[in-house]
What we know:
Elements: E1 3-7, H1 11-23, E2 27-31, H2 34-43, E3 48-51, E4 54-55, E5 58-59, H3 60-70, E6 76-80, H4 85-93, E7 98-101, H5 106-120, E8 127-130, E9 133-136, E10 141-144, E11 147-149, H6 153-164, E12 170-171, H7 172-179, H8 189-202, E13 209-212, E14 216-219
Parallel strand pairs: 1-2, 1-3, 3-6, 6-7
Antiparallel strand pairs: 4-5, 8-9, 9-10, 10-11, 12-14, 13-14
Amino acid sequence: xTEIYYMEDDExxxxxxxxYLCGKGYAVSAFGTLESGKKALEHHIPGIVLIDxxxxxxxxxSFCKWIRSKWNELxxxxxxxxxxxxxxxxxxxxxxxxxVTKPFELEVLYSRIRALxxxxxxxxxxxxxxxxxxxxxxxxxxxxxxxxxxxxxAEYQLLQLLMENKGKTxxxxxxxxxxxxxxxxxxxxxxxxxxxxxxREKLHHPSCLKTIRSFGYRMEDET
Length: 223
């Protein structure tokens, strides 16, 4: 099921849009502030983001720019009363894929979402993140904030396995088996320790990467 994050401080509009799109088979999460939406995105990447321009804690254009700095292919649609030509052009210049002015027909919004998702593909499965760390699986790229981090193949596989099991402890035995043994590279336990040490250093020792002593490791969203 495709997930939609919707930044909208008008509760009535947010409820109407959410109910309609949920009825069309989407999973919609509405956020009344940009900060709450930002925290949600740092925990999980949806299939598409809808943004109102004027929010209580900031401007949607800045939020759009922030998204683009981290997830370049994530589809974004502005839903706003700002219908001036300059605003529309500005919205696209900050990275929006589409721009819908209020009031709008729900059927039109639905059609635009479907069209954009067809073009974008499965972005929801492409990006994974935890705290400041994010991965673009299509590009085999790792980022810490906006900085792209160069990692080895083993480091990448280690991080991906932990990120895809976020919130769960992954045992050292499982990591050794899936990253090395299954590829015919039988190594000792110290190889995992050294690989993890190097990965932590490259990621600037992230607090979201936990060591579960004598057992394994766990990626955990920061509250």
